[in-house]
């Protein structure tokens, strides 16, 4: 599990380095989640997940409030949730999740990122079956044994609990996302180092140096796209 957590840390560090882009993406994601249901996280689980993720990225309250207020208004902007799947060099696999108000624009831009960097788009389902939809919650300040005992006492169904440095990571089914958080909140832990609903590769692959450079360029290009919210892959970047 360690390499998968490292990939998320790398993505988070990359996003932290460009906060304005991160905040814009979260603003849109919050708006769409709030627009689909009630603009109240207590009755809108999708919105609650996004807000928990936003907290770990230090998204300002003003941006969150503005997105929710926009959803409460009469805005008629319609965004579609899209998933693209594709392949990079040497059998690497990529999943791209997007929110867009222009499907043709987004599809063209995503395809260009793949083809210009030695990859190609796949059909729906060609990649996703090699990934597991996973809830991942990380905390600090508790031991591995303490967290294991807490999850057992709270009757939370988890896949794995591991220790990575100062962080204890809980991997669980997606529908256990809130249950894991509530268990921690029950003992006074409200700050999470990571709170993600993510797609984790079942098996990581290693690329030769030249392939790794090309692949990283492709991932950067995809994440730079305005319509792209998340990019998942199965490449092990090692200790980078």
From TrEMBL:
Name all TACO1/YebC-like N-terminal domain ranges: 3-73
Q: Which domain of life is it from?
A: Bacteria
Keyword Heme applies: no
User: What GO terms in the biological process aspect are recorded for it?
Assistant: regulation of DNA-templated transcription
Q: What compartments host this protein? A: Cytoplasm
Which is an annotated Pfam family here? TACO1_YebC_N
Per the UniProt entry, the signal peptide is none
GO CC, sorted alphabetically, is: cytosol
* Residues annotated as domain TACO1/YebC-like second and third: 79-235
Alphabetically sorted, this entry's keywords are: Cytoplasm, DNA-binding, Transcription, Transcription regulation
Gene Ontology terms, MF aspect:
DNA binding
Q: Family, per the entry?
A: Belongs to the TACO1 family. YeeN subfamily.
List the PANTHER family hit by this protein, alphabetically. TRANSLATIONAL ACTIVATOR OF CYTOCHROME C OXIDASE 1
What protein is this chain from? Probable transcriptional regulatory protein FHS18_002283
Q: What is the lineage of its organism?
A: Bacteria, Bacillati, Bacillota, Bacilli, Bacillales
